[in-house]
Amino acid sequence: xxxxxxxxxxxxxxxxxxxxxxxxxxxxxxxxxxxxxxxxxxxxxxxxxxxxxxxxxxxxxxxxxxxxxxxxxxxxxxxxxxxxxxxxxxxxxxxxxxxxxxxxxxxxxxxxxxxxxxxxxxxxxxx
Length: 127
Hints:
Blueprint: H1 2-21, E1 33-43, E2 46-50, E3 53-57, E4 61-68, E5 74-78, E6 83-87, E7 95-101, E8 106-111, E9 120-126
Parallel strand pairs: 1-4, 3-9
Antiparallel strand pairs: 1-2, 4-7, 5-6, 5-8, 8-9
């Protein structure tokens, strides 16, 4: 009986030692950050964010720098995401950055929540 207990103890100790020396599993890679820069411009009275079409993958972190070069204050919003900021056109105060995680796949409308007819675009989040 004493030999059996010794054998069980040695086997358990050996297994614990092997597990302790096994290399750790590598951490899952973090989602990439997709960075964009878009500028609000005015062409013949029409205000647009350019580029106005953004493509990312579900799970990506998204960072969009907004620069307002058009007249007046304009907003940048994405339907279905918590993005809705106003960007002034005054020199030195004409840029903002929005960041979010693309956690839903689909096509989402990009618009100015202040002047919906002025600017438009889309966010495409691939599965």
